[in-house]
Amino acid sequence: MEISKDSFATLLLCSDIALSEEVKSFTSIQWYKLAEKLWSMKLTPKDLFDIESTAETASLEQGEVESIKRLLDRAGQFGVALSALNEKGIYTLTKSDTDYPKKLKSKLKKYAPPVLYYSGNLNILNNNGIAIVGSRNIEQDALIFTEMLAKKCVNSGLNIVSGGARGVDSIAENTSNNLDGTSLIFMADSLEKKIRNKDTRKAIMRNDTLVLSAQRPDMPFKVYTAMDRNKYVYAMANYVVAVSSDADKGGTWTGAIEDLKHGWTPLFVRDGENMPKGNIKLLAMDGVSPITSKDIDEADNMLEWFDNIQATKEEKKEPKEPEFQQISFADLNL
To answer: Which residues are CB-contacts of 148 (< 8 A; sequence separation ≥ 6)?
Structure first.
């Protein structure tokens, strides 16, 4: 797979592949700040290969220059490692690539990961999608709701956007796979392991799935990567539905609160009888809309239903023009 010089520079500076323990790659925010410096001087990442000239032009600090040199020096071993990934069907996207998800850039800005690993059909990025998120351990009502919502989304031509975790995420993804629907899965840990899964491989071969990760493809599960993954799932969707959430703890709760704080994507929360405490608390918050099994059952098209609810909500938020009463001079008591 051909990679531009801008993308290769970004990969060398921001990827953990073929990285020795004593060298640290750039974080999302560090890369964002460096890219801003380059952009302000009409430079691009490829100019970093001429680091001496670029350092002076962009007024880079000595510490930055030394880090850049060390990271660029691993180009040979990095290229070998990248070729090995390509042979497994795993490829890369950077912020310098036109195919990089526009939703991540526009919604997350400096927090958008500079490097993504992927396997599957990139055209899925062009589809509208609904993120279906929730706890790993769910009760029967939540399971039925998840399957019902995922099925209606597939029938409406929508991506199922998921974090690939056990519970709600996997149920939504499996429902989509069983119906030959499209899905966009954002992993927090091993992308390599995910694409070895039989159902995932079949969906990839049908061009029905795109699996993404901001972590290196062999990354084991870490809590902090799961927290980062949540924001990527939210950002990649038109709407998010939280099926079941604990109160004041857990990934679903944290992701929902973070989304409400930043306003990335409109949030809907399952409502009905015997809801988890987290659902009840979220439904009482500003910016959250309820969704019930009845809503799903009665909707002809799921995206149109979400759009209509959100449009009505926005109309209510808009301040109305004040009404002025016409009066005569006699009314002024002058």
So the answer is: 293, 296, 297
Residue 239's beta-bridge partner residues?
Answer: 130
Judged by DSSP in three states, 34 sits in helix
How far is Cα 321 from Cα 319, in angstroms, rounded to an integer? Answer: 7
| Residue 235 CA: distances (Å) to CA of 140, 193, 232, 281 | 28, 24, 5, 22
**Residue scoring higher pLDDT (138 or 212):** 212
Question: Where are the chain's structural domains?
Answer: 5-113, 121-314
CA-CA distance, 105 to 219, in Å (whole number)? 23
Task: At 156, give phi and psi (nearest 5°).
Answer: -95, 5
Distance CA 138, CA 43 (A): 50
Q: Both ends of the chain: CA-CA distance in Å?
A: 83
Between the alpha carbon of residue 33 and those of residues 3, 60, 119, 153, 196, the distances in Å are 23, 11, 29, 38, 36
Does residue 160 sit in helix, strand or coil?
Answer: strand
CB burial class (10 A; 0-12, 13-18, 19+) of residue 323? exposed
- Dist. CA 163–CA 170, nearest whole Å: 8
Nearest to 212 by CA among 198, 235, 226, 232: 232
Give the integer Cα–Cα distance in Å for 275 and 303: 24
Sheet holding 129-133, edge to edge: 91-94, 115-120, 209-213, 183-187, 159-162, 129-133, 239-242, 267-270, 288-291
Contact 293, 271 (CB under 8 A): no
Place of tokens 């302000």: 40
CB 191 within 8 A of CB 257: no
Taking only the tens place, the pLDDT of each residue in 147-188 is: 999 999 999 999 999 999 889 999 999 999 999 999 999 999
Contact 218, 81 (CB under 8 A): no
> What does the pLDDT look like over 268-291, one tens digit per residue?
999 999 999 999 999 999 999 999
- Cα–Cα distances in angstroms (integers) from residue 14 to residues 29, 129, 133, in the given order: 11, 28, 28
Class of the domain covering 121-314:
alpha beta
Q: Are 159 and 185 in contact (CB under 8 A)?
A: no
